[in-house]
Design brief:
4-stranded antiparallel beta sheet, 330 residues, alpha/beta, 21% strand
């Protein structure tokens, strides 16, 4: 029986042992990079994972792909537990879950042609009966990624392409394996503003035509306003608020989410919000603050926030459930 969800994350944690340099301690303390994440993703759904740099978004992505070993918790893919897999099983899973990294300048091998880059995952996974079939798959992936005609790009090297074209090659390399889930980690942050919309439109089109589920990681809520079905806001290793895109944009509850929304540029000056500028720095992930993790920077923090750790703000919950979730803030 096929699971309703392509991905289920239950109580996922990823801690790193503190080192000896900088502010890391030597007394065995741990960095709480990902701390008790609960998340569900339906087939064909797009969820945006939003938060400022250092909140654990990329570490969560790497843990989901098995590139980092989970400290605790469970990851289910199509109903199967994939939290701790053997190398052979991980290889099979990675054919179904592909990642688009942030920097196309770093994620492409400069010594390989575009054809070699896109063909390589097919060879690694033993897909395609012969070179001719793999070449046809490569051409289709390139053209589906907006590089048309594909023959124009096959013999080029990455340095001969623009930033947007390079990111399309990265996407084509992922699409060649026909994955079920695409994890895009800040895929447009290294690109010019004029190119960002093209890449986001491409991902949206691929999601519709191929039915791929997408986790879109970004620090900018405005980037995915029309693309994502749901938004999960992450702060200091945890998801603090989750809901439908319209719910988060129009009815956000968590003060951290409200601060992120307030700085989104709005063309119409009459619709601009009052900017909420958070004070102070993000707390040390080795020595987390007591109670609510956000209270040292929260503009509406009360004394009880130092003792009480509030529940997740779930904007998709029923009214009764939502009231229970919000009771610590009332």
């Amino acid at each position: 029986m096929t699971s309703e969800f392509i991905l289920e994350v239950k109580g996922l944690k990823k801690y790193f042992q503190a080192g000896s340099s900088g502010w890391f301690s030597k007394n065995g303390k741990q960095v709480h990079a990902v701390d008790d994440i609960h998340l569900q993703l339906k087939h064909g759904e797009v969820i945006a994972l939003v938060g400022e740099s250092g909140c654990g978004k990329s570490t969560l992505a790497l843990t989901l792909l098995g590139l980092e070993e989970a400290t605790a918790g469970q990851i289910l893919f199509n109903g199967q537990d994939v939290t701790h897999l053997a190398d052979k099983e991980k290889k099979e899973m990675r054919r179904k879950i592909q990642m688009v990294f942030q920097d196309p300048y770093e994620s492409l091998n400069p010594t390989q042609t575009i054809q070699e880059i896109v063909v390589e995952p097919l060879v690694v996974h033993g897909i395609g009966a012969n070179e001719t079939e793999r070449l046809e798959r490569t051409k289709k992936a390139l053209e589906d990624s907006g590089l048309k005609p594909a023959e124009t790009y096959l013999n080029r090297f990455p340095h001969q392409l623009s930033g947007g074209q390079r990111q399309r090659v990265v996407i084509a390399s992922a699409l060649a394996l026909e994955p079920q889930l695409l994890v895009a980690d800040e895929p447009v942050s290294m690109l010019d503003v004029s190119i960002r919309a093209e890449i986001i439109n491409l991902l949206a089109e691929l999601q519709k035509t191929r039915g791929i589920s997408v986790i879109f990681i970004t620090h900018d809520l405005g980037t995915v306003g029309f693309f994502a079905d749901r938004v999960a806001v992450m702060y200091l290793g945890r998801i603090v608020e989750i809901g439908g895109m319209n719910d988060v944009l129009k009815n956000t509850k968590h003060p951290y989410s409200q601060a992120l929304l307030s700085v989104i540029p709005v063309p119409n000056p009459r619709l601009r919000r009052k900017r909420i500028i958070l004070q102070g720095e993000t707390p040390n992930p080795v020595n987390l603050p007591s109670g609510c993790r956000f209270h040292p920077r929260c503009p509406i923090a009360e004394e009880k926030c130092k003792q009480q750790d509030p529940h997740l703000f779930n904007l998709n919950a029923t009214h009764q459930a939502a009231c229970l979730l919000l009771e610590n803030y009332q």
